[in-house]
Every structure is written in C-alpha cells, then in structure tokens.
Amino acid sequence: MPQESPLMAVTGSTLVLAAPSPAPSPAPAPAPAPAPARARGPYARLFTRPGTRGFTAGNLLARLPMGMFGVSAVMMIAGQRGSYALAGAVTATGLAATALVAPWTARLVDRHGQARVAVPATVIAVLGSLSLVLCVRTQAPAWTLFASYAATATTPNIGGMSRARWTHLLPRSEHHTAMSFEQAADELCFMLGPVLAAFLCTAAFPEAGTLAGAALLLTGMLVFTAHRATEPPASGAPAAALGPSPLRALLPLLGLLLATGAVFGSMEVASIAHLAALGLGGTSGPVLALQAAGSCAAGLVYGTRRPRSLRTCLLALAAAMTLPWAAAATGSLAPLAGALLLAGMATAPVMVGAMALVQRATPPGRLNEGMSLAVTAIMAGIAAGSAGAGQAVDRLGSTAAYALPAAAALLALTLSIATSRFIRIVPAGE
C-alpha cells in the first residue's frame, strides 16, 4: 500500500512538515440488541421462590392419600369381613371424628408451627391406619375397627397448610393464582387417589391401598415440613390471646360451603346410581373422573385470568348443575359424560373464590384453623349430600336425584347473596 507524502507548509522562514491525518477508523458495528427475556407464566412465577417446589412436592405426596383412604377402607373391610354396612359405618365414623378433631389440630398448628404439630399428628394417623389393617386381618372385634379408623382423624389438613404457606410467601396480588393451583391439586389428587386405591386393593391384596396411603402420607408430610424457610411463623400465643375464634368470622361462609359440599356429595351418589341403573356401573370411575378432570383443568385456567366475584361463579355453578339432570333424562352415557365434564369445570372457580374469601376473612394468626373449619364444612356437606341423594334415588329414582345437586347449588347462591354483607375482610396489614 503506497505511503502518503507528508504535508509541507511555510511559517515565516520555517518549513513545517506535518504528518498526514490518519484515516478515520470505521465506526464499530452496533452490538446486537439482547433478546427479550421470555415472560414467565403466572404458575412459573410461583415456583421461582426458594423452597416452593420442595414443599409442593411433599404436599402432593401427602395429599394423594386423602382420596385413597376411604375407598381402601371400604374395599379392605368389605373384602375381609363381607359387610359393606360395616365398612360404611367405619368410614362414616372416621369422617365424623375428623370433623371434630381437625379444627383443634389446626389450632395447634397455628400456635406451635406446622412442623412441630403436623409430624406427630401424622404419625398418630399412620398408626391408626396400621392398626386398622391389623385388626381387619386378625378378625378383631368390630369396635376395634371404629377405634382404629377414628385415630386417623388427627391427619393434618395438608391443603390448608399449603395455602397458608402461599399466603405467607406471596403478596395478595398473587394469591388468586396460588389458590387456583391448590384447587387444581385437590381435584387431581381426589381424581387419582380412588383409582390408585382400587387398583392396589384388587391387583395386589385388600390391605395394599391403606398401607400405600399411609406410606405416602408420612413421606409427603416429612418432605413438606422439611422446608422450614417457607413455613409461616407460629403465633406462640394461647388461642385466647389471638382474638375471637375464626368460627365467628367465618360463620356466614360456612353455610355456603356446606351447600357447596352437598353439590359434590349428591352428584357423586346420583351418578353412581344412575350409571348402575343403566347397566354401566363399571364406567362409574372414569365418568366421575371426567368431572374431576374438568374441575382441575378449569382451576388451572382460572388461575391465569382475572378473578370473578364468588356470586358470579355460584350463578355459573347453579346453571351448570342443571346439565347432568337434563342429560340423565336422555338415558345415554355420552350426554351425561359431557354434562359432568362441564359441571366439573364450573366447580373450580367457586372453590377458588370461596377459599380466597376464607383466607381473607380469617383473623391473623389463625389461618390453618380457618381453613380447617372450611374443609370441615365442605366434608359435612358432602356427607349430607350423599345421604340425601341416596334417599332420593330410593324414593324418586336416579334421574330425579340429579335435582339435588342443582338445588344445592341454588341454595349456595342464595346464601351468598343473603350473607355477603356479614363477611368482614381482614385488611392486608392487620
């Protein structure tokens, strides 16, 4: 490359040599713009917080047996003792004991912390399950079955404890997504639990479902409580020092939850009876699973949307519950299956909204107790709905029994309208 000649200039009598100016260097190419960060979905954001994945894994393991124990006990007792009446009486006793004991267990959890109370309470419940297996296997007197199954009432409300952790970890703006996830988890476990229990009791041996459920419960609870950093702080104060009981604050909601539970219990019994009347009793499990699957899917989708008022969700539920009644009148399986799927999709938003109201209306420091009272009301409603539907099937037939869940949904809507003025929302800072 030829060199440029120096520039010459004369200043007075002086000859000045000037070096040529260097050629300007080309401007550097602009750096490529960074790729935009991929937006996280609402559920992905939930699990970015440390410890949330771990306690959720334990929560799901411990929650799955909740859908296993009832079916497993019925199949085990009926298979070994040859009496469905005895099996039903034993499980009903356990349900009644849980309704009495669960709020007291939750109160201890609020006062002393989840790990300190939930682990020993779970050990007692597991020992009750093992005792039930032993008593059934050894042909012990019938009263020992009742006593053993009643001991399982100390099982902590794992769903309530998980919701309490989300409430502790998240700002109120993210509670809707967390509550929607928890409702979907409930539906998933209650959908898979009976199927797993029935498979184990039939494919292995009658006690397999109860033993597997006990092992899952203990393992899951140990995993759940091991994540201490996400645990809400214990109040450490006596119940009297925490103010009024959650029962007083939640009383307007408990009647609504009772009616909602009656929707679930009556729908299940009516569906089982109707399919049996059509000679399709073997399809009861898959058809009822459709209802739970619809609720699970709807709960996950609802968590990504703006929440609606509970009254709006109950109105949709009341309308959806007329669909199975109309489909049952056709005497065909396909319309009924589709109607149950749609009816299930309407239940998740109601439960998400109701549990969110429970969380917001419960006095501070008593969230586990408030959640347990809500679950107790739902369980009592399920029992009442099941009993009422059984009476309706015997007296009016299986098709007419579908009027009961529709009536229960309408009652829940009416109670929502009548009691809304009495529900006091606790401010976020209280």
Description of the molecule:
This protein is an all-alpha fold and 430 residues long. It is built from 17 helices and two strands. It has a two-stranded antiparallel ribbon. Helix 10 runs antiparallel to helix 14 and helix 10 packs parallel to helix 15 (367-396). The longest helix is centred in the middle third of the chain and has 32 residues, at 246-277. The N and C termini lie far apart (81 Å). 49% of the residues are buried.
Secondary structure layout:
Blueprint: E1 7-11, E2 14-18, H1 42-46, H2 52-63, H3 69-81, H4 84-112, H5 114-137, H6 142-151, H7 158-169, H8 175-203, H9 208-226, H10 246-277, H11 284-302, H12 310-320, H13 322-328, H14 333-361, H15 367-396, H16 398-401, H17 403-419
Antiparallel strand pairs: 1-2
Q: What about the largest sheet?
A: 2 strands, antiparallel
Helix share bin: over 70%
Radius of gyration: 30 Å
The class by helix and strand makeup works out as: mainly alpha
Morphology: globular
Mean pLDDT over all positions? 81
Strand order of the largest sheet: 1-2
List unreliable stretches of 5+ residues.
Answer: 5-18
Order of helices and strands: EEHHHHHHHHHHHHHHHHH
Strand content: under 5%
> How many strands?
2
Give me the number of helical elements.
17
Compute the separation of the termini in Å: 81 Å
